[in-house]
């Protein structure tokens, strides 16, 4: 039986690229694997796939009766709906430990680094498998994306070391310029429906029994949102009501100014305000230096619900 390598429900570049890179590795060590994805490919990810000659992984949302190697998450809220009917054979992830459990032993590679593909590179090294040029290219791009070209507080010396190693394999002389190309693609939002923008990099969480949704958009200039910000705020509230969420947030990250404006729709704004010791003004607040959802938002917001 083939193992499906697959990331979270709303896949970002790391989720898609790690499914591909992990799938290749498993096949090379004699474990038949098929890369998959649970959702649509983002414009940035499509740019990466096109640049290095890959088709998008298989779109698959049901895994009952299948073997699954999870990439880039371990929270049940980001898993397939039928995860309990699947056999999880492994997890490779760089986030907090989630609530997925298994009835059989599994392989776990969980490290506090900036990107899942950083860990997959360590798996290649462990197994002594050579990384092809095109695989190195997509892994490199995923790390640049997740670490915001090394600006994110999630970035570690390990990520930077591995980017240099992958750049050498892929023949990329200026990886910073490649990273900026990717973020220019991310910044192209004109004509995109606001709901698609909110859900482009959206993750659901259970915070002490409260349903919370957090999306993030990383761009090179927040001014691109000026004409649609009111629409984003209105649709964020619609999303909160439709999904019966306590709180829905959209993180608008300016990678050049190295900070984020947070749009918040909530049944109780005081929880967010307490978490960050900041007052919301018209449902918005600027957080200087905030680039990371997993390190600068969730660790503060989740305890506030307790």
From TrEMBL:
Residues 222-249 form a coiled coil. Residues 179-305 form the DHHA2 domain. The keyword Cell membrane does not apply. Its cofactor is Mn(2+). Keywords: Coiled coil, Hydrolase, Manganese, Metal-binding. It catalyses: diphosphate + H2O = 2 phosphate + H(+). One of its GO terms (cellular component) is cytoplasm. Its EC number is 3.6.1.1. It is an enzyme of class 3 (hydrolase). InterPro entries: DDH_dom (IPR001667), DHH_sf (IPR038763), DHHA2 (IPR004097), DHHA2_dom_sf (IPR038222). It comes from the Bacteria. Pfam families: DHH, DHHA2. GO terms for molecular function: inorganic diphosphate phosphatase activity; metal ion binding. This is inorganic diphosphatase. It comes from Poseidonibacter parvus. The lineage of its organism: Bacteria, Pseudomonadati, Campylobacterota, Epsilonproteobacteria, Campylobacterales.
